UniProtKB/TrEMBL annotation:
<dbReference type="InterPro" id="IPR044145">
    <property type="entry name" value="IF2_II"/>
</dbReference>
<feature type="domain" description="Elongation factor G-like">
    <location>
        <begin position="20"/>
        <end position="98"/>
    </location>
</feature>
<comment type="similarity">
    <text>Belongs to the TRAFAC class translation factor GTPase superfamily. Classic translation factor GTPase family. IF-2 subfamily.</text>
</comment>
<feature type="domain" description="Translation initiation factor IF- 2">
    <location>
        <begin position="120"/>
        <end position="214"/>
    </location>
</feature>
<protein>
    <submittedName>
        <fullName>Uncharacterized protein</fullName>
    </submittedName>
</protein>
<dbReference type="InterPro" id="IPR053905">
    <property type="entry name" value="EF-G-like_DII"/>
</dbReference>
<keyword id="KW-0648">Protein biosynthesis</keyword>
<dbReference type="GO" id="GO:0003743">
    <property type="term" value="F:translation initiation factor activity"/>
</dbReference>
<keyword id="KW-0396">Initiation factor</keyword>
<keyword id="KW-0342">GTP-binding</keyword>
<dbReference type="GO" id="GO:0005525">
    <property type="term" value="F:GTP binding"/>
</dbReference>
<dbReference type="InterPro" id="IPR036925">
    <property type="entry name" value="TIF_IF2_dom3_sf"/>
</dbReference>
<dbReference type="GO" id="GO:0005829">
    <property type="term" value="C:cytosol"/>
</dbReference>
<dbReference type="InterPro" id="IPR015760">
    <property type="entry name" value="TIF_IF2"/>
</dbReference>
<dbReference type="InterPro" id="IPR023115">
    <property type="entry name" value="TIF_IF2_dom3"/>
</dbReference>
<dbReference type="Pfam" id="PF22042">
    <property type="entry name" value="EF-G_D2"/>
</dbReference>
<dbReference type="Pfam" id="PF11987">
    <property type="entry name" value="IF-2"/>
</dbReference>
């Protein structure tokens, strides 16, 4: 009752007269029905036959099943519904959107799949201290790019000089960037584009920055 009262006071309303948009609650493969996704519609109205994109998958809604296991023709805002007709099984939390036609759905799905593959490839090729020496043995890795962060400004030059002196015939050490202060999101972004490793001397990243680095 409190939720209903609060939604009424805040005038929380969803427009049912637009292309449907929602999120996957759960998904599975059914031996008789193929990919089945349970979706909570948040905006618009989903119709049987609508072309949709869900995560990296697409499809045409072949059937809608409500929470009473009955087939329905439409599902509006705040309605959970099982969807049949997707080309694959999406992840929980993936967004579902209805689009104008199947061609658009396939194009969006293809673009998302390509982007996901590129991200996975970039992640697998990322240099870290853990895999650097392994890459030296198996790949033509001749340089190690570093981003250096310290707690004292006066120590930057000494640390940079000590690190560059470690360069040898096999590997050349390059200092991409060095500064005083904590490790920031900008440092992680720079490391990603320059294929560098971030090294902190007496400084630590926040949990948010650590999570970003782990991605």
């Amino acid at each position: 009752e409190m939720i209903l009262l609060q939604s009424e006071v805040m005038e929380l309303k969803a427009n049912p007269n637009k292309h449907a948009r929602g999120h996957v609650v759960e998904a599975k493969i059914d031996s008789g029905r193929g990919a089945v996704a349970t979706v909570l519609i948040q905006e618009g109205t989903l119709h049987k036959g609508d072309p949709v994109v869900c995560g990296v998958h697409s499809g045409k809604v072949r059937a809608l099943i409500n929470d009473r296991n009955k087939p329905v023709k439409t599902a509006g805002p705040s309605i959970p519904v099982e969807i049949l007709g997707l080309t694959g099984v999406p992840m929980a939390g993936d967004e579902l959107i209805a689009v104008a036609d199947e061609k658009t759905a396939r194009q969006v799905s293809h673009h998302r799949s390509q982007k996901q593959r590129m991200m996975e490839l970039a992640k697998s090729n990322r240099i870290s201290l853990d895999n650097f020496f392994e890459k030296m043995q198996t790949q033509d890795v001749k340089s190690l790019n570093l981003i250096v962060k310290t707690d004292v400004h006066g120590s930057i030059d000494a640390i940079n000089e000590s690190l560059t002196k470690l360069s040898g015939d096999e590997v050349k050490i390059e200092i991409v960037h060095s500064a005083t202060g904590t490790i920031t999101e900008s440092d992680i972004s720079l490391a990603a584009v320059s294929d560098a490793i971030v090294i902190g001397f007496n400084v630590r990243p926040s949990s948010r920055v650590q999570d970003l680095a782990n991605e």
